[in-house]
Amino acid sequence: MAKTLVYKFGGASVKDSIAVKNLTEILRNRLRKDMVIVVSAMGKTTNALESILSRKLAKEDFSQNSSTLKAFHLEICEGLFSAGHPIFAQVQNLFLQLENKLELDLSRENYDEFYDSIVGFGELVSSRIVAEYLCSQDLLVVWKDAREVVKTNSDFRFAKIDWEETKKSCSSQWKPLLGNFPILTQGFIGSDPKGKPTTLGREGSDFTAAILATSLGASSVTIWKDVPGVLNADPKIFSDTRKFDELGYREAAEMTYFGASVIHPKTIKPLANVDIPLFVKSFLDPEAPGTKIHGAAIPHEVPTIVLKKEQILVSFKVTDFTFIEELHIHRVYERLQALKLRVNMLQLSAISISIVIDAQLFKLDQLLEKLKSEFEIRYNEGLELLTILHPAQEGISAYLEGYEVLLEQASRNTFQAVRRKI
Fold first, then answer.
1. In this structure, is residue 105 part of a structural domain?
2. Whose CA is closest to 360, among 379, 339, 344?
3. How is residue 384 annotated by DSSP?
4. Distance from the Cα of residue 42 to its chain's centroid
5. Same-domain pairing of 182 and 33
6. 386 is in which domain, residue-wise?
7. CA-CA to 16 of 20 to 30 Å: which in 149, 323, 357, 396?
8. DSSP three-state, residue 40
9. For residue 287, with 0-12 CB atoms within 10 Å meaning exposed, 13-18 middle and 19 or more buried, which class applies?
10. DSSP H stretches of helix in 58-174
11. Could you list the residue ranges that cross the membrane (predicted)?
């Protein structure tokens, strides 16, 4: 049996009926058995579901938001299918399930678990629509629920993979099927030991592709994006970007660690461990070579710029005139780990610990509440974290013009600055 190929299509590649038709053309001469196709939610559906959750939590009416989201998906179906096609009833049914779940109680205490029971609907609806359309175009695929095989712990919103169970499930449930048909499934979602839905962190569909590729012993993973490959900066923010024809696993992992959005940060490690190459290609120009990420790439020294928005700078200052010790750092990190907050930048002084974290609902309040008795705490919100890998020293100042710099640090190969617009 030939080795499995894994293709992943993100939200932009299924954002409307034209995009779904383009995806179909990409697959027309590429689809084969032994292929797994992973799709994300359509367009900004996950953001819309998060907005619904925010309104529900605030006890505000969200019915219009839900109706708008349903209408968005039905409009895509109208652009793909003739009236009376079964997909319309399927979409209506999925939104009825969503509305029933939204009737349940939501509080700060159960927010993470409730979140995971809701936001996966984006992928479930998207994958149903895409699978039905492919089949209508004589590209036969089998729709499968990723939660059947992607097994995780119960760390809701940031679930950790149970690799042994996932590999076992993939081998027993999907491998026999792949000998005869391609499978179309969802990114981002899994299930815990009790069968409750979990998610792998925002933009986690890339990670799903890597999980399935590793578990199925795939020959490669291809992520289809709206950019020509991996660039040295986000072209929506910076001009004069350069595409990498190839990258080593380590370089790619470093870029994603600091926040490069083209690939989810957890994607590289499982592929590198078993030497599965990752291709990043453009769904707007599918014949172009894109970028190949693999173990034999030649290292480069091209400056790479990563910008993370909606950052919070928090400083913890000891109050008893002692110096910062390991115990203080341990206490802060203990609380960060409990809240599932990742540190994007850390700086120590004699009497304070400064960290930069992503803005997340409730999390800052909970962090302050737990540590306010031990530290004097100050924070700034709405900041940007600029990271430059392999910086050209003479070029750094250009990225700081017009900004106030609240914190910066540099090493041999990395420059970071927390900035806000003046």
1. yes
2. 339
3. E
4. 14
5. yes
6. 304-421
7. 149
8. coil
9. exposed
10. 63-78, 86-102, 111-119, 121-136, 163-169
11. none
At 90-140, the pLDDT tens digits run 999 999 999 999 999 998 889 999 999 999 999 999 999 999 999 999 999
Domain membership of residue 199 (yes or no) is yes
Q: Do residues 73 and 123 touch, judged by C-beta distance below 8 A?
A: no
Q: Which residues share a beta bridge with 279?
A: 222, 292
Total domain count for the chain? 2
Cα separation, 412 vs 12, whole angstroms? 36
- Helix (H, G, I), strand (E, B), or coil: what is residue 41? coil
* Rounded Cα distance, 366 and 274, in Å: 39
Q: Is residue 249 part of a domain?
A: no
Where on the phi/psi map is residue 188: left (φ > 0), alpha (ψ -120 to 50), or beta?
Answer: left
CA 241 to chain centre: 22
Residues of the chain with pLDDT under 70: 1-2
Backbone angles phi, psi at 198, to 5 degrees: -130, 165
CATH number reported for the structural domain that contains residue 216 in this entry: 3.40.1160.10
pTM (two decimals) = 0.90
Other C-beta atoms within 10 Å of 372: how many? 11
* Length of the chain in terms of residues written: 422
Please tell me whether residues 81 and 180 are part of one structural domain. Answer: yes
Classify residue 244: in a domain, yes or no. Answer: no
Helix (H/G/I), strand (E/B), else coil: 393: helix
Evaluated on CA atoms 28, 29, 33, 36, the torsion sign reads: negative
> Residue 295 belongs to what H/E stretch?
none
How many angstroms separate the CA atoms of 308 and 356, rounded? 11
Distance of alpha carbon 151 from alpha carbon 280, whole angstroms: 26
